[in-house]
TrEMBL record:
The lineage of its organism: Bacteria, Pseudomonadati, Bacteroidota, Flavobacteriia, Flavobacteriales. Coiled coil: none annotated. Monomer. This is tRNA dimethylallyltransferase. It comes from Chryseobacterium indoltheticum. It comes from the Bacteria. It is an enzyme of class 2 (transferase).
Length: 310
């Protein structure tokens, strides 16, 4: 039985380092399931692995798309499974890492057979989004399915449109629609999490945002501003990403820079809270503490080796 090790945890917790440590330990490669690190124009604001980190282990699904490209979770599931088939011919163990919960779920469990988008529903929802903003869609989803609202990327209007459409079509919450059994996988998954007290997580997020600004996040966002203002840009879910949408309001003169940065921190902390809510419900995650020692890491390797022998 081949093994996928899935490294999970909140934003800013240190998943990239652990994934690289594991890839080097098992001499294997890494699949990213961070849906925003797919975009080449968003390296700084999504904390994509640096060139130095990429040189330490081969990564897949990092910067392979433009923000202009449409790429669904279904496409990611298909492409990841195809890649895993290839990688498992070379390796007994492959690493996956990322904090996009539904993308991880798509790979390790599979997506449900949901109905196709309903054109009439989509038109209604698009009109609501255009006239009342993404906040209205967020409010609608929170009323219809509070459980999914706590887990979804609420800044991704496509995800909101899709969930509300499915709820309207089926008369069931989106959470109910995706709770059924999926296609079995021909590999086992070992899920490894990194955890820390919430105050530590929030402090790490605040420091990371400051570091992103030092590393050029403002210029990175500015390079996307013209596209954002175009007709094409108005429909791109990729541009409704924490770290960029706040700076766009600074460019528009709605906020000053200090406030925009504080909002990036606040929205990043909110996303981390949703991640914590999601992972707390999962019962099959083996946890390391943030800032793990060499002894902790060696204990993790022993645990993985035991699991792969079962």
């Amino acid at each position: 039985m081949k093994t996928l090790i899935s490294v999970v945890g909140t934003t800013g917790i240190g998943k990239t380092k652990l994934a690289i440590d594991l890839a080097r330990q098992f001499n294997t490669e890494i699949i990213s399931c961070d849906s925003r690190q797919f975009f080449s124009e968003m390296k700084i604001g999504t904390a994509a692995p640096t060139e130095e980190e990429l040189s330490q282990a081969k990564h897949h699904f990092i910067g392979q798309l433009s923000v202009k490209d449409y790429y669904s979770i279904g496409q990611f599931e298909h492409d990841s499974l195809e890649l895993l088939d290839q990688l498992f011919k070379k390796y007994d163990i492959v690493i996956m890492v990322g904090g996009s919960m539904m993308y991880e779920k798509a790979v390790i469990e599979g997506l449900n057979d949901l109905p196709e988008a309903n054109d009439e529903n989509q038109e209604k929802l698009e009109a609501i989004w255009q006239t009342e903003g993404i906040e209205k869609l967020q409010e609608m989803l929170k009323d219809l399915d509070p459980e999914y609202y706590e887990n979804v990327d609420i800044h991704n209007q496509r995800r909101l449109l899709r969930a509300i459409d499915i709820i309207w079509q089926t008369g069931k919450t989106y959470s109910e629609n995706i709770s059924h059994d999926k296609n079995p996988r021909n590999f086992q998954t070992i899920r490894i999490g990194i955890e820390a007290p919430r105050e530590t997580i929030y402090e790490r997020i605040n420091l990371r945002v400051d570091k992103m600004m030092e590393n050029g996040l403002l210029n990175e966002a500015k390079n996307l501003d013209d596209l954002r203002k175009s007709q094409e840009g108005r429909t791109l879910a990729s541009l409704n990403t924490v770290g960029y949408s706040e700076l766009f309001k600074y460019f528009d003169g709605e906020w000053d820079l200090d406030f925009a940065v504080s909002e990036i921190k606040k929205n990043s902390r909110r996303f981390a809270k949703r991640q914590l809510t999601w992972y707390r419900k999962e019962e099959n995650i083996h946890y390391l503490q943030v800032g793990y020692s060499e002894k902790d890491f060696n204990g993790l390797i022993e645990f993985i080796n035991e699991q792969t022998k079962k």
